[in-house]
């Protein structure tokens, strides 16, 4: 989930205001698939995924 601070409360958003082209619903599956590979592999996978999403 993405949260946005509005006043003194958080609102949930469907898409990132910073990265509006990213399909954030796919991110949990990506993280889970890389969990056993370690943190460095996970970071690399997320970076690669973000770059691929930006191209689309």
**Percent in helix:** 40-55%
> Spans with pLDDT under 50 lasting ≥5 residues?
none
Strand content: 15-25%
Number of strands: 2
Instruction: Give the SSE order as H and E letters.
Output: EEHH
Major sheet: 2 strands, antiparallel
Determine the N-to-C terminus distance. Answer: 22 Å
Overall average pLDDT: 87
Summed up, the helix count is: 2
Widest beta sheet: strand line-up: 1-2
Q: In angstroms, what is the radius of gyration?
A: 13 Å
Taken from the alpha-carbon principal axes, the silhouette is globular
Task: Provide the structure class.
Answer: alpha+beta
Oligomer: single chain
Which helices and strands appear, and what pairs or packs with what?
Elements: E1 2-6, E2 9-13, H1 27-34, H2 39-55
Antiparallel strand pairs: 1-2
Helix pairs in contact: 1-2
Question: Can you walk me through this structure?
Answer:
This protein has 56 residues and is an alpha+beta fold. The chain has a domain at 20-56. Helices cover 45% and strands 18% of the residues. The protein is built from 2 helices and 2 strands. The protein has helices spanning 27-34, 39-55; strands spanning 2-6, 9-13. It has a two-stranded antiparallel sheet. Helix 1 runs antiparallel to helix 2 (39-55). The two termini are 22 Å apart.
């Amino acid at each position: 989930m993405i949260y946005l601070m509005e006043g003194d409360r958080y609102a949930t958003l469907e898409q990132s205001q910073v990265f509006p082209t990213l399909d954030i619903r796919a991110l949990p599956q990506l993280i889970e698939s890389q969990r056993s590979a370690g943190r460095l592999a996970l970071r690399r996978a997320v970076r690669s995924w973000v770059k691929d999403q930006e191209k689309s």
